[in-house]
What we know:
B: Rossmann fold; 2 domains; 11 helices; ATP-binding (chain B); transport (chain B)
Amino acid sequence: MKVFKAFEYRRGSTILHRIDPRSKLVYLILFASLTVYFTKPLALFIIFLSFLPMVYVGKISTRWKQSLRGSLFFIAFIFIFNFVPTAYYSGNLLDAAVSAIAMSLRFLNLISVFSIFFLTTSPEDLTQSMVQLKIPYDYALTFNMAMRFVPTLSREAQYIMDAQRSRGLEMEKGNFVSRIRNYIPILIPLIISSFRRAELVADAMESRAFGASKKRTSLHLLRMGRNDLLFVLAATGSALALFVLNVLL
Amino acid sequence: MISIEGVTYSYGDGINALDGIDLEVKNSELLAIVGENGAGKTTLVKHLNGLLKPQRGRVMVEGIDTKETTVATLAKKVGLVFQNPDHMLFAETVEKELSFALTNFGLPPEEIARRVEWALIEFRLSNYRDRSPFTLSGGEKKRVSLASVLCYDPQIIVLDEPTTGQDSLQKTRLASTLTKLNRQGKTVVVVTHDIEFVADFIPRVVVMSRGKIIADGPTEEILVRKDVMEASSILPPQLAELSWKLGLESPSIKAEIIIEEIKQMLRGGQK
């Protein structure tokens, strides 16, 4: 469940926290696209290295590392499921290893770039920037709340696991199929309580007059400043450089 | 027999949720653990079946060190029922819900059927046998969650907040079930905020505050100690409060004793 740490925003005052969310969104889209587009492990690794200064400047290294450690399992999973079939069908171990490493790095990069974005962007700012990008408020809020409930959900999953293990459930017992079946007693309570919580939240919002006025106005408007534009320029510039580098490699 | 020696546990936020806990629970004891929110009660009971392992110190359950065994092994001896039944219930019917733990422990089918039957009757759930647990009321769900653990007959029974959402009749029934199981030789540990429930039914009480045990002893002695009640932010039993206000020499939580003392005062006039 550590992987959820990737999305737990805490208030901060570094330059990265203060950059306009829309500028960071440009960065996110550019680097996520590059990650998906690149196939060479070295190029993907260079992208990964480019995240290090961002993490340092944003002072988010602890939670970023936690989220990477939490995703190790998935990375191992991705590596094995790419390596084994490719090696089996092509018979070329080196090629298989290269493509499996590329896939794993790709996942690592995606986790990192989303993590950098969400760890340095406050949910309120994110909603506000979506609204200013002309996304309807209801959708912006829905997205924001989905993010907000990720840590709650992971805590709840932990409670449920404790309760079912106390009733003798052994998660790691049995073959592949029965291991998946072992998750049923965890997932059903989790899903049902999520629905119930959604209803509660809806009731709570309505009792506080959500949606009473058709036209919403904001107290604080986000404004693109010099730093925000510079950030977009720098992000675009380095993305272009990486693109050229990938062709040359 | 449970023995907890110098147990310390922290969730990694710099605060010790448990801060040097020493506690011994003998076989077939009936005791309550009380204390303010965040005192560490739930953290402590999670140590009893190995869900949490002590970071310092040692927890021994029936002579087994919890660090050296699995939750599934300990769960057979220690039945732990959590506060919120919604974290447990998942099966299609109440009957299947009750047989979940029994199946996990690999009991033979006849034995499972017999124990499910016992639990349905003991917790007055027979009418709901084929109902989905999700369609039950809060109090009924709570009873299903209690039944689903008690049905496999653990030697040690640990209940976290069993009285929440129960009316006074159900509370009395719960108390009589617990007392009955206790007389049959079970060890029963109840974690609760419901101080009147403790005062009425439970002979030994352990008071926790900020990860420490601040008092431990017979209920009628501990619950009338003003200092302990205040230190742990517990609303004292009404009879204890009455005794304090009357200025009784020996405050009590038993109505009969207080009545006797008042009679004495009236007969003797102003002392």
